[in-house]
Amino acid sequence: MVQANLLTPPSRIPPQTALQLSQKAPLILASAPTSSLPWPLSLLFSRETPETWAIHENLLLAALRTGDDASARQILDRLTTRFGADNERMIALKGLYEEALAKDDKELEKIFNDYEKVLKEDPTNMSVRKRRVAVLKSLGRTADAITALTVLVENSPTDAEAWAELSELYASTGALGQAIFCLEEVLLIMPNAWSAHAQVATLHYLSGSTSIPALTLALRHFARSVELNDSYLRGYYGLKLVSQKLLPLLSESSVSKRNADEDDVAPPKPQSVKKLEEIATAKLGEIIRQYSASKAGQSGYDEAEVIAARELLDRDGKVER
Amino acid sequence: MAILGTALNAVGLIFLTHAVYSSHEHTAAFAHTPLPLDITIELLVSIFVLSAGIVVSSPQLKPIQWAKWGGKIAREGQHGEGKWTREGEEILSEGDGFAFLGLDTGIGGNGEGRRGFWDVRSKRKEYAEWAKAGGK
């Protein structure tokens, strides 16, 4: 069971949780966070905290998702009176509200044109630029979305979120090479992001599940992700999967062929791959045991991921028997 | 541990106050004699007890190695620490700082990362289908 917390919403929101989140709307809308007193007094008697507005924004998203448009409108009005209609973020949130209410693609096109107008006035509005890409994606125009995003990252090359989104878009069109490039940009900005390393490794694995250089790179990135996070289920899962694929390939290709490899990626030694696989197996077993011993909602792991890991270990057991 | 820390702090504070008061009384009464040994000892002991109490009652240290820190977040997830905002939302412990990249759910994943590119229509559709199917 995922905790329905509006201040820090979970990283995955299934419909049940979305419903729980949006059901908090009447309670939060019941009391006004800002004071209605004139200026100097309003500072003294204001009830707002920094968390107030984060909660309002998350509530707005939850209300839009569950189709509670009346509440969404109220929250949006509250945010607008607090921050002003010209605020960069507010323009994007208002656009989001309109997008949610758009009935067909035609209305969505209209919203897209509105975004264009906003950008003509202020080309530095990053939130609206991102919304514009999201609309293109929602319209199914992935190629246009990619073009718009490449312009965005050209203008703002340190935006890790945009690079990650671009990588996702490329991956969805099957352009794995470009997707890997974009994620490497993410790694340049945040070299300690274990999830980014795992994602690069996944892409390498997908791009060539029978070629030694691709699998070697996947192995390296998975190894780095567990080096950055010593209980990272996805990292250990990938480590085990890749090393299982890599081991037979390494024993097949003899030493003579290894020297003639066209890539500069030196394949790992079979012994070290074997050792990595053993470590991953042990750690996965430990994670599964810990998960089944913990109470519901007390573990940080996703249930589906743990089940997948258990299946991987079971499959392995059958082969050995 | 919380009780032990509070007890040590309380005892230490009482002795420290007593020692300070005694030394003040002594200097007020006999201005030109040295401080008696028992007051000095009481002062030192009370400071020691108070320091021990502060150390014992301090919150647990966080891991300073990146891998251990990340592992702790992955194992335990976010949990409440007994603090709530005015709106009644619990303030949770530190979570995965890279969740905003939305890379945890893999390729084509349905996560909540990358808020700037949040696709409201597909999320809305997902919810509507769930509600139509009976909402279970």
UniProtKB/TrEMBL annotation, chain A:
The keyword Isomerase does not apply. It is a peripheral membrane protein. Residues 105-201 form the EMC2 TPR-like domain. Gene3D superfamilies: Tetratricopeptide repeat domain. GO terms for cellular component: EMC complex. Keywords: Endoplasmic reticulum, Membrane, Repeat, TPR repeat. TPR repeats lie at residues 160-193. It is found in: Endoplasmic reticulum membrane. InterPro entries: EMC2-like, TPR-like_helical_dom_sf, TPR_EMC2, TPR_rpt. It comes from the Eukaryota. PROSITE patterns: TPR (PS50005). The keyword Amino-acid biosynthesis does not apply. Belongs to the EMC2 family. Component of the ER membrane protein complex (EMC). Part of the endoplasmic reticulum membrane protein complex (EMC) that enables the energy-independent insertion into endoplasmic reticulum membranes of newly synthesized membrane proteins. This is ER membrane protein complex subunit 2. It comes from Didymosphaeria variabile. The gene is oca3.
UniProtKB/TrEMBL annotation, chain B:
It is a multi-pass membrane protein. The keyword tRNA-binding does not apply. One of its GO terms (biological process) is protein folding in endoplasmic reticulum. Keywords: Membrane, Transmembrane, Transmembrane helix. Pfam families: MMgT. One of its GO terms (cellular component) is EMC complex. InterPro entries: EMC_subunit, MMgT. It is found in: Endomembrane system. The chain crosses the membrane at residues 35-56. The keyword NADP does not apply. Belongs to the membrane magnesium transporter (TC 1.A.67) family. PANTHER family: ER MEMBRANE PROTEIN COMPLEX SUBUNIT 5. This is Magnesium transporter.
